[in-house]
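Subject: Sanity check before I submit

Could someone independently write out the structure tokens for this chain? I want to compare against mine line by line before I put it in a report. The sequence has 213 residues.
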Amino acid sequence: MGGERAARENRYFQRGVNYRSLCARCNSELLGARYDPVLIEFTRQIDRFISQRLYLPLEILTQPNKFVRSVVGHLVAHGLQLHQAGSFFSDMSRYFLNERAVLPNAYRMHCWLYPYNDQFVSQCNARLTHPGGDFILQSILKFYPVAFTLMQGGAPEVRSGLTRLDPLLSIDINTQAIIEITLSALPPKRWPEAPGPDEAVMHTPLSLGAIRE
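---
Independent answer below. Compare away.
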């Protein structure tokens, strides 16, 4: 992924490639067993709908408090000991671990249809939308068929195709809500990690993309 030259001899890892991230309880009991199944079902419903080639708004009944925690969990897992590295990681760690916590008011989360195979994950990059404006701190998770961005600071995004999720969150982990996904007027494929006209994006080392050839 870093663009380094491939070694002449391959190495085989019988148990896959592992790196330290979340603790066993967070990874298995919370993320894997409790929150990920809701996110997986959410994405499967989107995939089934768009495979029918219907161009109508898609309404999905789901448990937003669980699948948003799944997204947050995967963002926090993208690194090591980052809960000690700043307010974003402290805020997200507390939110992920406490079922009755709500997303702090400073953060906004959006999702949108992402009909591409390329994957992207990023933590805490900064986007300047216009000269002289304020930076937006954003963390991004993108994979087929849906993408998410968690934003802090700056003005709220006014862009068609986005569904805002944070107003749907509550202290009841089992609350259900209908989330509407628009199938038209989507953001550009590389939004928001790539700058548009008159924009600038500053990435941290915690930005990683995988492109299918």
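---
OP: Matches mine. For the report I'm noting this point. Strands lie at 58-62, 107-113, 119-128, 135-143, 146-152, 163-164, 177-181, 200-202, 207-210.
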